[in-house]
Structure to design on (257 residues):
C-alpha cells in the first residue's frame, strides 16, 4: 500500500512551487489532479491550505464541482454523506481537507501526503515552517504544491528559486483563460491575439512597450493597475512587498512571543 501511495504522489505531476498570475488555471489543474489520485489510491491524505479557511475551501469547492460534473467517472467513489464544504471523503479512505493558513489558527492533529498551499504569497512563512511542514514531514513520502503570485519574498519566493524546485510559471501572455474568448473580446496585433480585459488593466508604460505604433491602444482606461502590481501579478517579477516589514525570523518571534 505504501508503494502505491508513493506512486500516486509522483503521478500528480504537480509542482513544488508554481507561480501564477491570478489566472486560476493552476488551481483548476491542481484540483483535477488531486481528484484523480485521491479516487485511485486508497488512504491518500491531501491538505489544502489558504490564507483563510474560506479561501482554502475554494479549491475544495473546485474539486467538488469536478467530481459532481456529468463527465466525472469517479463521483460514485465519494462518500458524500461524510463530506462537507471543507472536506471530501472517499470510500477508499482517501480524503481532502481545507485548513486555514493563519498563524493563530488551530490546525493541530492533521498529517498528509500532499500539501497544497493556494495563494501561497499570503500564507505566513511561520505557518508553513512550524505548522504545515511538520504535517507532511511525519510521513515517509510527501508532495508540496504552492500556487501564488510574485508578491513579497516569503517561503513561496524561496520555493520558487531553490535549484531543485519544479516551477510552472504562467505570465499574462500565456494565460489561456484570457485567450479562450470570443473574438470580440480580443485584439489582434502583429498576428497575435491579446485580451481586451488585460489591456484595460495594463499600465500605460507597458501598453507602449507591447503595442508600439498603436497610440490608440496606449490611452488610459481608468482601470489600470499600478506598474508595481502589474509586474508582480502579471509579469511575475519578484518584488519586495512594501507591507512585508518583518523577516521570517521576526515573524516567528512575533507569533511565539
Amino acid at each position: 500500500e505504501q508503494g502505491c501511495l508513493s506512486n500516486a504522489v509522483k503521478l500528480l505531476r504537480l509542482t513544488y512551487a508554481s507561480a501564477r498570475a491570478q489566472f486560476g488555471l493552476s488551481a483548476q489543474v491542481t484540483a483535477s489532479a488531486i481528484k484523480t489520485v485521491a479516487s485511485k489510491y486508497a488512504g491518500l491524505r491531501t491538505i489544502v491550505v489558504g490564507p483563510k479557511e474560506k479561501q482554502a475551501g475554494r479549491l475544495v469547492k473546485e474539486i467538488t464541482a469536478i467530481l459532481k460534473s456529468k463527465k466525472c467517472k469517479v463521483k460514485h467513489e465519494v462518500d458524500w454523506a461524510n463530506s462537507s464544504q471543507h472536506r471530501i471523503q472517499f470510500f477508499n479512505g482517501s480524503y481532502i481537507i481545507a485548513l486555514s493558513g493563519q498563524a493563530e489558527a488551530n490546525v493541530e492533529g492533521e498529517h498528509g501526503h500532499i500539501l497544497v498551499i493556494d495563494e501561497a504569497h499570503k500564507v505566513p512563512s511561520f505557518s508553513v515552517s512550524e505548522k504545515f511542514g511538520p504535517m507532511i514531514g511525519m510521513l515517509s513520502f510527501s508532495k508540496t504544491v504552492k500556487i501564488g503570485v510574485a508578491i513579497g519574498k516569503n517561503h513561496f519566493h524561496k520555493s520558487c528559486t531553490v535549484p531543485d524546485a519544479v516551477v510552472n510559471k504562467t505570465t499574462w501572455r500565456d494565460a489561456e483563460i484570457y485567450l479562450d474568448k470570443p473574438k470580440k473580446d480580443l485584439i489582434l496585433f502583429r498576428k497575435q491575439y491579446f485580451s481586451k480585459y488585460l489591456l484595460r488593466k495594463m499600465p500605460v508604460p507597458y501598453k507602449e512597450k507591447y503595442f508600439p505604433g498603436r497610440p490608440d491602444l496606449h490611452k488610459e482606461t481608468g482601470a489600470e493597475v499600478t506598474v508595481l502590481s502589474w509586474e508582480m501579478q502579471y509579469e511575475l517579477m519578484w518584488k519586495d512587498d512594501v507591507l512585508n516589514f518583518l523577516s521570517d525570523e521576526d515573524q516567528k518571534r512575533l507569533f511565539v512571543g
Summary: The first strand starts at residue 17 and ends at 20. The beta strands are 17-20, 45-50, 87-89, 95-100, 114-118, 143-148, 167-170, 186-189, 192-195.
